[in-house]
Specification:
There is one protein chain. The protein is an all-alpha fold. The chain has one domain. It is 98% helix and 0% strand. The longest helix is centred in the middle third of the chain and has 102 residues. The chain is rod-shaped and about 150 Å long.
Length: 104
């Protein structure tokens, strides 16, 4: 009877240990899933950062191109203003010359 009781206690102890090991295994599995999820999240963050840097570089390139176009437009504006002044000076000189010819 004593052996039977010892066997029963041993079996209960083994079952308790097995249940404990099962719980530990489940926790380890959850931890590994969490580590994998963290690694995926980190990879996504790295990809997002890379994309952000690419977009920032593209925006800077566009800004430089816009600045170049603005400078060209400003130079064109100066040229147009100069041509406009030359036109009016020439026009006034011609009108003055024609008026002088007709008045003589």
């Amino acid at each position: 009877m004593e052996t039977n009781k010892l066997e029963h206690l041993l079996q209960e102890h083994l079952k308790a240990d097995q249940a404990r090991l099962d719980r530990i295994e489940i926790k380890i599995d959850k931890l590994s899933e969490t580590v994998v999820a963290l690694a995926r999240a980190e990879e996504k963050l790295l990809n997002l950062e890379s994309s952000r840097i690419d977009i920032l570089n593209t925006l800077e390139e566009h800004e430089e191109r816009l600045d170049e176009h603005e400078a060209r437009l400003n130079q064109g504006g100066v040229t147009i203003n100069t041509l406009n002044k030359v036109f009016w000076i020439t026009f006034i000189a011609l009108v003055g010359a024609m008026t002088g010819v007709y008045l003589k």
